[in-house]
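Translate structure to sequence.
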C-alpha cells in the first residue's frame, strides 16, 4: 500500500541547470503586473549608470596565470664606510625581501527566464533587459573588488598583508626598520594636506635612503570633495584673513582629485604617489585574467532561457609606498 501511494503521488519538478542543481527562473508569477495592460511606465532599472571609477587611479593589466607573484621590499646596498689606510674594504650584500602573490578569483551571475515570461510581457524585452542588468552587475562587482584594498586599508583583521600589517599602517617592516604610510588622523584640511606632503617627501626605500617620491592624486569620498576643491582651488589660503598664497595650488602639489562613492568610510582619504607611474604592478593594479563573458543557453525540457556572465580578476597593491592614507578624524 505504501508503494502504491508513493507511485501515484504526482512528481514535483523544479527547473535545474546543467549540473542538476535547482535554479531560480523569472516566470510570470514574479512580475504579474507586466502581463496586464494599463501600466504607463516601469521604473527602477533605467537610472543612468555611473561611469567606471577605479580606472582613474588603477593600472589595468592582463594576466595569463592563476596568480601573479612579486618580490617586494628588496633592499640594495648600504652606505659606503670610511676606509682606514691599508685596511680592507667592507663588503655588503643586498636583501632579497619577501614574496607575495595576487590570486585570480572567478565571478559569475546568471538568470533564467521562462518562455511564457518572455513571450507575454507587454512592456519590455525581458531577455534584453536582463542582459543589461547582468552587465551592470558585473561593472559594479569590479568596482567593489577594486576598492576592497582601500576599504580595508586600516583594518587589522580583514586588511592584513604579507608584512603582518594593513595597507595603511605606521609599522611596515623594512630592512632598515619600520616605515609609515599612515597620515595624521584628521579630516581634510589645508594643514592635513601640507603635513601629508612633508611626510611623503621623506619617503625612503628598504635601506632607509630617501627616494624621489611625489604626490600624484587625492582619492576621497564625495563628502570630502567640496572642501578639498575649495582648499586646492583658492589662490590664497582658504578660509584665512591673511594674504598668504595657497602653497598647495601655487606649487601644484596635489594636481588631481578623484572622488569615489565606493569608499565605505566617508572621512578616509588617500594620496597616491608617483611610485604608481612605474607600471610594474607594484601600485594599485586591476588584473584581468579572463574578460567578461556572456553566454546564453536554453533548457530544452521546460523552454527556459538561461543567461550567464563570468569573469576572473583581482585587485592588488604590492608596495605600500604607492599610497598614503588617513583614517579620518575617528582614526578607523
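Result:
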Amino acid at each position: 500500500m505504501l508503494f502504491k501511494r508513493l507511485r501515484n503521488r504526482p512528481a514535483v519538478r523544479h527547473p535545474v541547470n546543467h549540473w542538476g542543481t535547482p535554479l531560480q527562473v523569472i516566470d510570470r508569477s514574479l512580475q504579474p503586473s507586466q502581463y496586464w495592460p494599463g501600466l504607463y511606465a516601469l521604473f527602477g532599472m533605467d537610472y543612468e549608470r555611473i561611469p567606471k571609477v577605479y580606472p582613474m587611479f588603477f593600472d589595468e593589466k592582463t594576466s595569463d596565470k592563476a596568480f601573479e607573484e612579486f618580490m617586494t621590499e628588496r633592499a640594495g646596498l648600504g652606505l659606503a664606510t670610511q676606509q682606514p689606510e691599508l685596511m680592507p674594504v667592507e663588503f655588503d650584500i643586498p636583501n632579497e625581501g619577501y614574496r607575495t602573490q595576487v590570486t585570480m578569483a572567478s565571478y559569475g551571475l546568471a538568470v533564467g527566464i521562462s518562455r511564457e515570461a518572455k513571450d507575454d510581457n507587454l512592456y519590455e524585452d525581458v531577455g534584453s533587459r536582463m542582459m543589461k542588468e547582468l552587465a551592470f552587475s558585473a561593472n559594479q562587482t569590479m568596482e567593489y573588488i577594486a576598492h576592497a584594498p582601500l576599504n580595508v586599508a586600516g583594518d587589522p583583521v580583514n586588511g592584513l598583508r604579507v608584512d603582518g600589517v594593513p595597507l595603511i599602517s605606521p609599522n611596515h617592516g623594512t630592512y632598515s626598520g619600520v616605515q609609515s604610510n599612515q597620515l595624521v588622523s584628521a579630516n581634510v584640511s589645508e594643514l592635513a594636506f601640507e603635513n601629508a606632503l612633508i611626510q611623503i617627501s621623506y619617503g625612503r626605500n628598504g635601506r632607509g635612503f630617501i627616494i624621489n617620491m611625489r604626490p600624484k592624486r587625492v582619492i576621497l569620498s564625495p563628502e570630502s570633495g567640496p572642501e578639498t576643491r575649495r582648499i586646492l582651488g583658492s589662490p590664497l589660503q582658504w578660509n584665512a584673513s591673511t594674504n598668504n598664497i595657497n602653497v598647495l595650488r601655487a606649487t601644484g602639489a596635489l594636481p588631481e582629485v578623484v572622488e569615489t562613492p565606493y569608499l565605505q568610510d566617508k572621512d578616509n582619504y588617500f594620496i597616491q604617489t608617483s611610485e604608481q607611474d612605474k607600471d610594474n604592478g607594484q601600485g594599485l593594479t586591476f588584473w584581468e585574467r579572463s574578460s567578461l563573458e556572456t553566454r546564453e543557453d536554453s533548457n530544452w525540457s521546460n523552454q527556459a532561457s538561461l543567461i550567464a556572465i563570468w569573469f576572473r580578476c583581482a585587485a592588488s597593491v604590492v608596495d605600500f609606498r604607492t599610497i598614503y592614507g588617513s583614517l579620518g578624524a575617528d582614526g578607523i
